[in-house]
Design goal:
The protein has 298 residues and is α/β, with parallel strands linked by helices. It has a single domain (3-297), classed as Aldolase class I (TIM Barrel, Alpha-Beta Barrel). It has helices at 3-6, 8-14, 21-27, 30-41, 105-108, 119-128, 146-154, 172-178, 194-201, 206-220, 234-248, 279-291, and strands at 69-77, 87-92, 115-117, 134-138, 162-166, 184-188, 222-228, 254-258, 296-297. The chain has a nine-stranded mixed β-sheet with strand order 3-1-2-4-5-6-7-8-9, with helices on both faces.
């Protein structure tokens, strides 16, 4: 399938021939029901698969996000995939992972102070940037902020495709809230096994959760999968991920193979990732994607 075939609905929205899903959900009364369920979940939070069950009306969970929307920054982003730019990107504060090599570690690991926003306030900001091709919710990680994001959409009246840009460690309950709202899922598929995930991102049951969510996302909407190729992780991570995509999702998704890894944050304490990716390693990843006949970009 061609790139445009994989993102047919996305391009139809850009051309004004189709409405974004969140507008349709709002018109049908489905969005208000999702908002009610999402805010109820704050009383025993299970939005991500850490399932800490904290009452976020009283205190923050693992992510330290309570009952307010916390944002690090927002701007017109020109560093995303070519078909997404300019993308109005909202960087939410905090994350559900503890990646030792995170390039946005000051946001994800909460070293920066966030700005608190009301949903109606953020909706007005997004509307002022409606000349962009989409609104792109990222972080950190957007999942802890899902109730506030859905509420924001209830105030939004622009024909912008919605991109959910995530580590894909959402709970199944969170996936149900996202269903019928997101136009394009933009995932970060990091690891091909649970051992690497637990060692480098401090998460358990990674592969079963992320694989499940990719299948759910592909059945709900259009999907672009990012994979940052890590040094010394071709055999254990890159190849198993590409094999799974080829088997389960085939060519109906776009895979973005990324070579921009650089040691950041705590990466220098982990010998195998304490250097940049070599050209040879990345070429091996590209060759394998070709052999599997994946629909990929790099």
């Amino acid at each position: 399938m061609s790139l445009k075939s994989c993102l047919k609905n996305y391009f139809l929205i850009l051309e004004g021939k189709k409405k974004p899903k969140f507008l349709i959900a709002k018109e049908k009364g489905l969005l208000s029901k999702k908002i009610e369920k999402a805010y109820k979940m704050l009383e025993s939070c299970q939005l991500c698969e850490r399932r800490c069950k904290v009452n976020r009306k009283e205190k923050g969970g693992f992510c330290k996000v309570k009952d307010k929307m916390l944002i690090s920054s927002f701007f017109d982003h020109y560093g995303e995939e070519p078909f997404f730019i300019p993308s109005f990107t909202v960087f939410f504060w905090s994350c559900t992972f503890e990646c030792v090599y995170c390039q946005n570690w000051t946001i994800s690991q909460r070293y920066e102070k966030p700005f608190a926003f009301e949903p109606e306030e953020l909706a007005k900001v997004i509307e002022k940037h409606s000349y962009c091709k989409n609104v792109n919710f990222v972080g950190g990680e957007p999942t802890p902020q899902l109730p506030f994001i859905l509420k924001t959409l209830s105030f939004l009246n622009v024909n912008l495709p919605l991109i959910w840009n995530s580590n894909f460690y959402m709970s199944e309950e969170a996936m149900k809230l996202l269903k019928g709202v997101v136009d394009v899922y933009l995932s970060d598929f990091k690891y091909g096994n649970d051992e690497c995930a637990e060692r480098l991102s401090k998460v358990k049951n990674y592969t079963s959760v992320v694989k499940r969510n990719h299948l759910l996302a592909s059945n709900d909407s259009e999907l672009v999968i990012r994979h940052l190729v890590l040094p010394n992780h071709i055999e254990c991570c890159t190849k198993p991920i590409l094999e799974w995509i080829a088997k389960k999702l085939k060519r109906k998704v776009i895979v973005n193979l990324m070579d921009q890894y650089r040691p950041e944050y705590k990466a220098f304490s982990y010998k195998e990732i304490a250097r940049k990716l070599t050209r040879k390693e990345f070429e091996e990843a590209i060759t394998y994607a070709k052999e599997l006949k994946l629909n990929f970009i790099c």
